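Can't paste images in this forum, so I'm doing it all in text. The chain is below; anyone willing to post the predicted structure tokens underneath?
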Amino acid sequence: MSVDVMVKDAVETVPKAVAAGIVDMASGMLLGVKTVDSHPQQILDLVSAATKELFEGEMVTSIENVFKRTRGVNSDEHYFQELIVSSTNLWHYFGRLKAYPSVVLVVVCRGDVNVGMLLMKCREICTNGTI
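Text version of the structure:
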């Protein structure tokens, strides 16, 4: 599945989705995006930077390292696999692709979405998605 197909699939199958994107954690780049409205490039650039910070920022990495140390885990695997954020009018889903943990799917939905359906559809894409 290509990046373009994955973001198109997310916008079409995740209930009340208004945008979807794929962010590469290694480069911090937005690899693909699809929105129902137009957004300035500056906003899209901020989404990729914020996604990288949410998953691999200094404090998040410190928390993960403490978890690993206290549990005796010696691995490079990231503990944080997905995040869901509620804003004033929207839900924002961020999830690592199972096949490519350094790639994150971002999906934004209207605030009245059924959160269970949002999670189910996004997890399905993250589990089955390859680029």
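The radius of gyration is 15 Å. The chain has four helices and five strands.
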